[in-house]
Amino acid sequence: MLQGVNLACIRGDRELFRDVNFSLEAGGLMQVRGPNGSGKTSLLRMLCGLSNPAAGEIRWCGAAIRSLNGDYFSAVTYIGHLSGTKDDLTVIENLRISSALAGFEISVTQAMEALAYIGLNGRELLPVKVLSQGQRRRVALARLLVYKTPLWILDEPLVALDVMAVKLIQELLEQHLKQNGMVVMTTHQEIDITATSIMQLQLA
Questions:
Q1: What's the longest Cα–Cα distance across the chain?
Q2: pLDDT tens digits for range 37-50
Q3: Which residues neighbour 202 within 8 Å (Cβ) at sequence distance 6 or greater?
Q4: Could you tell me if residue 31 is left (phi over 0), alpha (psi between -120 and 50 degrees) or otherwise beta?
Q5: Which of 38, 63, 121, 195 has a beta carbon 3.0–4.6 Å from 203's, enabling a disulfide?
Q6: Mean pLDDT of 87-102
């Protein structure tokens, strides 16, 4: 279970949100909504442990995430609004190196299969810098196929994707949720996903 308890976020002299509470169970999806500047990305970064809340606590299975250290972070896959790919590396190098850094060593064959599934067949040896924005996003999202973590935290995962790619990612999310995974995500696009529990967290 992932919980947020009385969370607050301050940027400079501005309070983005306060008293944010939620509880997400296995198989559940939480969509974080709000206008630009409301703190959606800031909240997701807190959930990943990349920043600290100004007040409140984030808990994983009942314990504060700061007390769990690697036991929590190894359970999380975070894909930010930026794809986080390296332009001068090839598509397959990006996937294999990012996987190794996350603690998931994958073979060339596993990487090729994941990239083919995500729609990058034939582009595996191209440097990422020659890809379109949508293709770069697919490189980042291919991590979801090879990282074996229960909690996915995704900031605008559908940005720059075409209709077919959006459908593919929706299917990936549904499959993860059916396997008792959890998803926290922001998106400006409407999504049609079946899950045990779907909740909306609205930031002002």
A1: 50
A2: 999 999 999 999 99
A3: 33, 34
A4: beta
A5: 38
A6: 96
